[in-house]
Amino acid sequence: MPQFTVHTLDTAPAASVPLLQQTLNAWGFIPHLHATLAESPIALGAYDTLFGATTTQGTLDAKEQQVAFQAVNVLHGCEYCTAGHTFLSRAAQVPEDVISALREGAPIQGHPRYEALRQFTETVVRERGRAGDDAVDHFLAVGFTRAQVLEVITIVACKTISNYTNHLTHTPHETFMADPMLKWVAPQRV
């Protein structure tokens, strides 16, 4: 198995150092995902740009963002990101029943807007963007906008970078991810 470095500010390629410093300033620590992505300044920059744009400039609210992020994480079977976004979902005050349904890959009961977002996001991923007019029409009929159709694609792109990186590099989990309330094992590994 190839070994990937979990970089620090001292070991990262020069072009990644300012990006890692920004992450440290924003988060108070450098997540192992970012430290691993630092091997490629392009990959780290792309991830940071997409994640930052989604969370600061998007029109989906913080809870909706987490629903879409988590739908992708679970569908991709990414244990690192599912644990991390469970933490972020709680910070965004996503209802616990919604968090549980997402982690189980189950329909979200009692929250039709979140369920429509989960379904649409999963369809976009499964169908590789060819979700079809009916899926888009249903998403819009629930009250989402055309801009939010494209925001979902941005979230899918962002999570594809992180999920695939974690799969290929075996990104070590953060210490806090061992908490039984956060830890998640992909169904395909059970």
Automatic annotation (TrEMBL):
UniProt superkingdom: Bacteria
InterPro entries the UniProt entry points to: AhpD-like, CMD-like
Transmembrane segments: none
GO MF annotations, alphabetized: peroxiredoxin activity
Record's protein name: Uncharacterized protein
